Amino acid sequence: MREHLQGKKRIVIKIGSSSLTHAATGMLDLRKLEKLVRLLCDLRGEGRDVVLVSSGAIAVGCTAMGFGKKPDRVEEKQAMAAIGQARLMMTYQKLFGEYQQTAAQILMTKNTMLNDLSRRNARNTFEELLKLGVIPVVNENDTVSTYEIQFGDNDRLSALVAALIQADLLVLLSDIDGLYSDDPHQNPQAEFISLVPEITAELAGMGKATSSSGVGTGGMAAKLEAARIATDAGADMVICNGSDIENLARVMEGQETGTLFLAHKNLNFDLIDYISR
């Protein structure tokens, strides 16, 4: 069942804030970042199209300015995003440069996706960058987004990007091994679910609306919503633990890693329907 993942040609990888930073200090985990960039460059070297959706701007900004926790006020969050996004992208550029790989930054807002012309322009930009062999690094433009027009979390954003560029695989590097029948942090009897052929109403009910980390925004409910978007668009999706970046390599090698959600292309799929919800 997993072997077909080895043949995926256009891959979107999302990594969350908790997988990018040290839990004790909130500072960037440079060893983990370097390993991630190296794996992405290897995937690109194999001739695959690669897009990285990276959280972490607000977390990096908070650390830079000495904030002990994520601020509550919107203005503070947006200021931290402005500071942190620049630092985060500078780090990515330096690491990608070590492997002679060109990266590009794409900051998106929900309005970009809702407007037909902007959405088409965004798709064309992705296509041109991928044709040039560039790895786009995507994040929501938290600096200008308002509550009413936010994507909500980068799990959802990554699924929308996967649908926009017609990717055939989405990998969510998370703070959990995959999908469980219940929250494993609260219930030690929770059962791990390795394969999801279809997202049923019962399965959707297993999602939790909170994140187990103090720096992320998306919980299992958000990941199930991302899986619904990605699989309806025709992409397989895998949730695996980002604490070990090698899990990404294991997924691409077809190993039993994380939870695999199988694609089931919705013939009536219209991206705008999923964006506006």
From TrEMBL:
<dbReference type="InterPro" id="IPR001057">
    <property type="entry name" value="Glu/AcGlu_kinase"/>
</dbReference>
<comment type="similarity">
    <text>Belongs to the glutamate 5-kinase family.</text>
</comment>
<keyword id="KW-0547">Nucleotide-binding</keyword>
<dbReference type="InterPro" id="IPR005715">
    <property type="entry name" value="Glu_5kinase/COase_Synthase"/>
</dbReference>
<keyword id="KW-0028">Amino-acid biosynthesis</keyword>
<dbReference type="GO" id="GO:0005829">
    <property type="term" value="C:cytosol"/>
</dbReference>
<comment type="function">
    <text>Catalyzes the transfer of a phosphate group to glutamate to form L-glutamate 5-phosphate.</text>
</comment>
<feature type="binding site">
    <location>
        <position position="154"/>
    </location>
    <ligand>
        <name>substrate</name>
    </ligand>
</feature>
<dbReference type="GO" id="GO:0055129">
    <property type="term" value="P:L-proline biosynthetic process"/>
</dbReference>
<keyword id="KW-0641">Proline biosynthesis</keyword>
<comment type="pathway">
    <text>Amino-acid biosynthesis; L-proline biosynthesis; L-glutamate 5-semialdehyde from L-glutamate: step 1/2.</text>
</comment>
<dbReference type="GO" id="GO:0005524">
    <property type="term" value="F:ATP binding"/>
</dbReference>
<keyword id="KW-0808">Transferase</keyword>
<dbReference type="InterPro" id="IPR036393">
    <property type="entry name" value="AceGlu_kinase-like_sf"/>
</dbReference>
<dbReference type="InterPro" id="IPR019797">
    <property type="entry name" value="Glutamate_5-kinase_CS"/>
</dbReference>
<keyword id="KW-0963">Cytoplasm</keyword>
<dbReference type="GO" id="GO:0004349">
    <property type="term" value="F:glutamate 5-kinase activity"/>
</dbReference>
<dbReference type="InterPro" id="IPR041739">
    <property type="entry name" value="G5K_ProB"/>
</dbReference>
<feature type="binding site">
    <location>
        <begin position="174"/>
        <end position="175"/>
    </location>
    <ligand>
        <name>ATP</name>
    </ligand>
</feature>
<protein>
    <recommendedName>
        <fullName>Glutamate 5-kinase</fullName>
        <ecNumber>2.7.2.11</ecNumber>
    </recommendedName>
</protein>
<keyword id="KW-0067">ATP-binding</keyword>
<feature type="binding site">
    <location>
        <position position="142"/>
    </location>
    <ligand>
        <name>substrate</name>
    </ligand>
</feature>
<feature type="binding site">
    <location>
        <position position="14"/>
    </location>
    <ligand>
        <name>ATP</name>
    </ligand>
</feature>
<dbReference type="Pfam" id="PF00696">
    <property type="entry name" value="AA_kinase"/>
</dbReference>
<feature type="binding site">
    <location>
        <position position="55"/>
    </location>
    <ligand>
        <name>substrate</name>
    </ligand>
</feature>
<feature type="domain" description="Aspartate/glutamate/uridylate kinase">
    <location>
        <begin position="9"/>
        <end position="241"/>
    </location>
</feature>
<dbReference type="InterPro" id="IPR011529">
    <property type="entry name" value="Glu_5kinase"/>
</dbReference>
<dbReference type="InterPro" id="IPR001048">
    <property type="entry name" value="Asp/Glu/Uridylate_kinase"/>
</dbReference>
<keyword id="KW-0418">Kinase</keyword>
